[in-house]
Amino acid sequence: MSISERKEREKKEMRQAILDAALNLFREKGYDAVSIRNIAEAIEYSPATIYLYFKDKNEIFFALQYEAAAVKRDHLLPVAQIEDPWQRLTEFGRRYIDFGMKHPGLYDLLFIIRAPMESVENQECWLLGMSVHKFFEDTVQACIDARYFKSTDAKTIAYTLWCHAHGLVSLFVRDRMRMYPPEERGELARKSFAMLLKMAETL
Amino acid sequence: MSISERKEREKKEMRQAILDAALNLFREKGYDAVSIRNIAEAIEYSPATIYLYFKDKNEIFFALQYEAAAVKRDHLLPVAQIEDPWQRLTEFGRRYIDFGMKHPGLYDLLFIIRAPMESVENQECWLLGMSVHKFFEDTVQACIDARYFKSTDAKTIAYTLWCHAHGLVSLFVRDRMRMYPPEERGELARKSFAMLLKMAETL
DNA sequence: AAATTTACTGAACACTGTTTAGTAATGTCA
DNA sequence: TGACATTACTAAACAGTGTTCAGTAAATTT
């Protein structure tokens, strides 16, 4: 059955080609500014062809969101190797912010864009994101167990750290740091992260 | 010149009617989901009429952004009455978060939606926002002067506090707290704000 | 009363997401 | 090999979008 195998492979390639083109366009112009016709033109097929591979424009979005979640996981999970929980937590935070800065388009996709949460694709994405979030909360708990924190409220600690990191990245990604000169922004973010760590040590 | 006065008044009323209708629709359905035709229908005029009062759809957005900035200022600036800088700062933070929770549509308009920043309307909005931000940074500086903080890096402290508050609000506004049961979210946000204040005391 | 200015609109243009009917090529099987 | 079925794709259409413009009817000025 080599023929049907080739067909299936080609189908996957086509699907991926659509996703690649879509991601490039989304990153350049944003989700709403990209039309199905734009994507179709980029892959040199008719708009209707896209609908043979994706139910609608949303489903393309969901598939990309899943890809973004996978990239994020791969960016973060290497820290699982770090034994010391406090070091693991700080490196996790550093990498979380680094992911957002390096892939603003993906971060947008995952945490900022207003998106309906329905499809199967998206449920997988959700589960993936949840597992990373659980790893994060577990690391906070490990810090508590190792007496790095006096507080024992792991959930609130994790959420508070997350708020800071998300706030930092999304102010950056959505260009709400105009009051700070461009060349200072990176430095300010780094200083703020360091300040948060200092503060967190007193928890 | 009572006639021309009436005309000018009517012109302002029409402009405001368009803005009111647009804001209602934007809050219900989001910026992109609202069409000029929807707004026109709401005020019972033809779509073309809208263009006599606004250059394009973006300019309606800018005008609303300015209104949002004014609402935010009115929500926050009463704390200027509070003498003690630390109390002033904490109440400012509480109100900032409160504003975001109470007016998610306006918060979105101001800090999340990807928006080109060009028009005159928008420049006024920017100046308004800057003045509130300056008040915030001044309050942090006042806390430093009153020895509430050991650190003297007002800018980084202000930015760090802002990151947390913005992260907290925007995770809420953009519905990224699904891992926490709905009835716990408010409580978690309150706890996190309290935790940040506790941490900030050690700065 | 005539001329001008104002406020508004219908209809069009080029775009959007999506559906449908149809085509041309490929794969299957007698 | 020839007939049939499936696959992969598309042109064209539908209803929607932001926006423009020629035209109109009413209000105001002369």
Q: Overview of this structure, please?
A:
The structure is a homodimer of 203-residue chains. Chain A is mainly alpha-helical. Chain A has two domains: 1-54, Arc Repressor Mutant, subunit A; 57-200, Tetracycline Repressor, domain 2, CATH 1.10.357.10. Helices cover 76% and strands 0% of the residues of chain A. Chain A contains nine helices and no strands. Chain A has helices at 2-29, 36-42, 47-53, 57-76, 85-102, 104-112, 120-145, 154-173, 182-200. The longest helix of chain A has 28 residues, at 2-29. Chain A is globular and about 60 Å long. The mean pLDDT of chain A is 91. Chains A and B meet through helix 7, helix 8 and helix 9 of A and helix 7, helix 8 and helix 9 of B. The first copy, chain A, binds a DNA duplex (30 and 30 nucleotides) through residues 3-4, 7, 14, 35-37, 45-49, 51-52, 56-57.
Helix and strand arrangement:
The structure is a homodimer of 203-residue chains.
Chain A: H1 2-29, H2 36-42, H3 47-53, H4 57-76, H5 85-102, H6 104-112, H7 120-145, H8 154-173, H9 182-200
The first copy, chain A, binds a DNA duplex (30 and 30 nucleotides) through residues 3-4, 7, 14, 35-37, 45-49, 51-52, 56-57.
Q: Please, what is the oligomeric state?
A: homodimer
Work out the helicity level of chain A: over 70%
Number of extended strands of chain A: 0
Gyration radius of chain A, to the nearest Å?
20 Å
Strand content of chain A: under 5%
Q: Biggest sheet of chain A: strands, sense, closure?
A: none
What is the CATH class of the largest domain in chain A? Mainly Alpha
Largest interface, counted by CB within 8 Å of the partner chain's CB: A-B, 42 and 42 residues
What is the name of the CATH topology of the largest domain in chain A? Tetracycline Repressor, domain 2
* H/E series of chain A: HHHHHHHHH
